[in-house]
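Before any further analysis, backbone shapes were mapped to integers, which produced the following:

***
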Amino acid sequence: MGAAAAALATLINGWLQTRSATRIARVNLIMPMRVEWIGQLRGKVARYITACAKINIEKKRDWELPLLRHEIALMLNLDEEEHQQLEEALKQLVQLAEEKKMDDPEVGDAVVEVRRLTSSILKTEWERAKKGDEKPVGQLPAVAQATLPAPDR
């Protein structure tokens, strides 16, 4: 009986250590990607707002605005309500920038809303990064998904 209990304890200990090591590996891999994602989203949204101001002033679109819109959309997790709201706010901002002057209060409110939503999303993701939360941020690159060990649940 004593040998069986020791063997069982050894198996349980090995399983717990493997599970812990897998979690640590996931956190160490995901955290730098999440921090990079935060910086990229911040930069892309700032450039999007600037590109909207540019089309408002020049009254013409170039390739930058649709490119940024698609890049931002691909970074978002549209299963999350706040991410959906940001995508809608970005659409609204470009529409208002094309129709109204930049000093129009509606345009200013739209810019404030995009910044508010972006800040809230970034704060949430930063908190997840600090805690080592495994919930995926936006859409991880395929290479990251392929190298992540499967979660042990």
